[in-house]
Specification:
This protein is an alpha+beta fold. The chain has four helices and five strands. Strands 1-2-3-5-4 form a five-stranded antiparallel sheet. β2 and β3 form a beta hairpin. Keywords: Kinase, Serine/threonine-protein kinase, Transferase.
Amino acid sequence: MRPEMTLELLAAPAGVSGVRRALRPYGTDVQLCASELVTNVIRHVGETVPVTVRVWREEGGRIRLGVSDPDPRALPVLFAGAGTEAESGRGLALLDALAVRWGVEREGGRKTVWCELFTGADAGSDTGTPKTPERPGRRKPSAGALGPSSARS
């Protein structure tokens, strides 16, 4: 399936707000997850590396967001919990809480961290919450570091 929107940029703190603005039509959860994933590229891969942000509408009322970068070795790690004094370490936990599912795909010299989210309009409610509290399709998170092919599916 072709992405509905593709953004190509160089990873830089100033670019994160532009990604959020561009993704405004998809809702705050998509904006927040994209911000976290682009920020992770900046922090763990480096500034000025090329980043591609893609958004698709999936069957079942989901939005799929993918953030690609050129370092297939720098894989995301979901920490059990950041301490109250920690200045970072909550981004993937936030993504994990918002997403129906998420994972990592490595292809060639790139990786894509992706997630699927419900949007308010697609979820069938005014609150942005899916009709069932279990969030259909959601499974329990895996323990420890995330593997190379898929973090959770």
